[in-house]
Amino acid sequence: MKNLFLVASGTLAVVPGLLTLQSGVSCPPGTKVLFGDGVEAFGALALLLLWANRERLAALSRAAVAGLTIGLALLGLAGILVYTGMLDICVAEPQSAPHKEYRPVSFPLWLNEPVADLVRKAGSRTAALDRYGPEDIVTKLRGCSK
After folding, report:
1. Range 59-68, long-range pairs (CB < 8 A, 24+ positions)
2. Per-residue pLDDT averaged across 13-31, rounded?
3. Residue 44 phi, psi dihedral angles, 5° rounding
4. Model-level pTM?
5. CA 142 from centre of chain
6. 67: Cβ–Cβ under 8 A, 6 or more apart, which residues?
7. DSSP H or E segment with residue 106
8. What are phi and psi of 101, to 5 degrees?
């Protein structure tokens, strides 16, 4: 029975990374391999840390383990919510017909000039993509990062 649980936990640790590698859900454009590999690496690291600290964890009371687990789960959930909120702010997809075929564009969280000017004039990042064209916005974004 113990071996069954070990196999199940190892399998469940691999699933999120494989799903990220396959679908790219919640990843900025063009980064699904990086994010999938990162999820896999942190999953393996978490399992190794649990294994390395198994004696210390066994010495804790059930209430302490439950409290620690709930606290870490809430911290993880808060991290996911903040990340998806930032992803929604920073990644924009053109909506107008002439630019609909273009891929989503990743904006930095804090915009520098001249991109901030274009976004301010258009009203939003998506509106700026539709008004000025993704190519122009991406060119100006690349110029800001130098």
Report:
1. none
2. 73
3. -65, -40
4. 0.67
5. 22
6. none
7. strand 105-106
8. -75, -15
112 φ, ψ (degrees, to nearest 5): -100, 165
Whether pLDDT at 146 is above 80: no
Looking at residue 108, what DSSP letter applies? P
Sign of CA dihedral 33, 35, 36, 38: positive
For the chain, the straight-line distance linking the first and the last C-alpha, in angstroms and rounded, comes to: 57
pLDDT at 28: 73
Q: Which of 46, 52, 35 lies closest to 12, judged by CA?
A: 46
Question: How far is it, in rounded angstroms, from Cα 137 to Cα 82?
Answer: 25
CA distance 76 to 58: 23
pLDDT per residue over 77-100, tens digit each?
999 899 888 888 888 888 877 777
- 21, pLDDT greater than 60: yes
Q: Copy the structure tokens of residue 18.
A: 């494989």
Token pair 């010495």 is at which residue? 59
Q: What's the token pair of residue 86?
A: 């930032």
